[in-house]
Amino acid sequence: MGTTEKDLLFCSFCRKDSDAVAKLIGGPGVHICDGCVEVCNKILAGEPRPAFPGWDVLTDDELLRILRPAAATVHSVADILKQHVQTLRQRGITWTQIGKALGVSRQAAWERFS
Ligand SMILES: [Zn+2]
């Protein structure tokens, strides 16, 4: 049986998979690795923030390798957003209210999430 997209666990920030990191911490639709937590801790401690080198520093193969995790992050976060909207709908919140909160029309909210 092959690995499905849902089986892939990777850091949503640096895209390293669970085999390449010591720890992977899960949140709603996202994960963060120990290395990225370490960077966060340094930032919180007031140390200079390391500059993001940009995607151009990666080789074609590296960019291709992280494409699937990047797409999976988008899908995962989109699923969380949809659950969020479903919770609001179950509470009786109108599409007009949801659209206003999202900064889109009632129709746009309904078309995207119903
Ligand atoms: Zn990471």
Question: Would you give an account of this structure?
Answer:
With 114 residues, the protein is mainly α. The chain has a domain at 5-81. The chain has helices at residues 34-44, 60-65, 67-90, 95-102, 106-113, and strands at 24-27, 30-33. Strands 1-2 form a two-stranded antiparallel sheet. The two termini are 33 Å apart. Residues 1-5 have low confidence and may be disordered. The structure holds zinc ion (ZN). Zinc ion binds at residues 11, 13-14, 16, 32-33, 35-36.
What small molecules does this complex bind? zinc ion
**H and E string:** EEHHHHH
Give, in spatial order, the strands making up the sheet with the most strands: 1-2
Mean pLDDT: 89
- What percent of residues are in strands? 5-15%
The best one-word shape is elongated
**Major sheet details:** 2 strands, antiparallel
How many β strands by DSSP? 2
Q: What gyration radius follows from the Cα positions, in whole Å?
A: 18 Å
SS class: mainly alpha
Low-confidence region ranges = 1-5
Helix content: 40-55%
What's the structural blueprint in terms of helices and strands?
Elements: E1 24-27, E2 30-33, H1 34-44, H2 60-65, H3 67-90, H4 95-102, H5 106-113
Antiparallel strand pairs: 1-2
The chain binds zinc ion.
Which key phrases capture this entry?
114 residues, mainly alpha, two-stranded antiparallel ribbon, 50% helix, elongated, disordered N terminus, binds zinc ion
